[in-house]
Design a protein that fits this description.
InterPro entries: DUF5685 (IPR043740). This is DUF5685 family protein. Pfam families: DUF5685. This protein is mainly α. It has a single domain, classed as Orthogonal Bundle (Farnesyl Diphosphate Synthase), CATH 1.10.600. It is built from nine helices and two strands, in the order ααββααααααα. Strands 1-2 form a two-stranded antiparallel ribbon. Helix 6 packs across helix 7. The protein is globular.
Length: 280
């Protein structure tokens, strides 16, 4: 359920791509420093977006440095560190741990159980920092798992649950922006859940696994209906974003919100319909 909130690289300026990379590498390094080497494997684009969004809104004091990455030793990279990136690192651990837990409950994949155990200490540290937030997210994820086990096919109800999770994650502080961030996260979370279901529907049908879109797949209206729902969720998230008093990193954030998140959808759709080679 990760990797859908991405940039559209061909449409991004080189200088903006460098800034984006500095956040991505900064988040990676932060995961390492706070939770060890294994935590770096949880790195994803979605939480990089969260780090940039919150940094743009709250404008925290930050540090920059040139760093030679162990994964890319021949290249020096600029990395950033600030409290919003640290928060995004914590939320990265949270989501990855819960995803492992969900995969183990659904499919009994021993690799996911092993990964969950490796992240258990880091998860406990995160929970100690944000006990109320994690209690709310855990309760919602349990309800989501329960509904999936009950084969709930109401796509609005199911996506709304993951929307609540992302709403909690974007609600960084209890302040005047909390409501708008929650609503933006809510709709963004619904989009992520729906696009993940759209992406996996064929495999889930083939392996007799849960997917709320299974009953509609194959119908003549499936593609148009799916796109309309996704467009609605993105439009609502964009409305909330534009209300925020953000000046910095606007080009990067708008690239992601208005263009980047659609690159994954187009790749999936074109591959499914056999159009060209699946490229954008």
């Amino acid at each position: 359920m990760f990797g859908y909130v991405v940039v559209n690289k061909p449409e991004m300026k080189i200088k903006d791509m460098d800034v984006y990379q500095s956040f991505y590498c900064g988040l990676c390094q932060c995961l390492h420093e706070r939770y060890g080497r294994i935590a770096q494997t949880t790195l994803n684009f979605d939480m990089t977006f969260v780090a940039i969004l919150l940094s743009a809104l709250y404008e925290p004091n930050e540090r920059k440095k040139v760093f030679r990455c162990g994964f890319h030793p021949t290249t020096k990279r600029m990395i950033r560190s600030n409290p919003c990136i640290e928060y995004a690192a914590d939320m990265t651990i949270l989501l990855t741990y819960m995803k492992c837990e969900d995969d183990w409950n659904d499919d009994k994949k021993i690799t996911r159980l092993a990964y969950e155990k490796l992240l258990a200490k880091a998860y406990r540290q995160v929970k100690a920092r944000y006990p109320e937030k994690l209690d709310a997210i855990e309760d919602t994820m349990k309800e989501l798992t329960q509904k999936e086990q009950q084969n709930e096919m109401d796509i609005d109800r199911m996506s709304a649950l993951f929307g609540k999770v992302m709403g909690e994650i974007l609600s960084y502080q209890n302040d005047e922006w909390q409501h708008g961030l929650y609503r933006m996260g809510d709709y963004l979370g619904r989009f992520i859940y729906l696009l993940d279901a759209y992406d996996d529907v064929e495999d889930d049908i083939a392996h007799n696994q849960y997917n709320p879109l299974k009953k509609d797949f194959g119908e003549t209206y499936f593609e148009d209906r799916s796109k309309l729902i996704l467009e609605t969720m993105v439009a609502e998230a964009a409305i909330e974003y534009e209300k925020l008093p953000i000046l910095e990193y606007q080009d990067i954030l708008r690239n992601i919100i208005y263009s980047g998140i659609w690159t994954k959808y187009e790749m999936i759709r074109k591959k499914r319909l056999g159009e060209e080679d699946g490229s954008i």
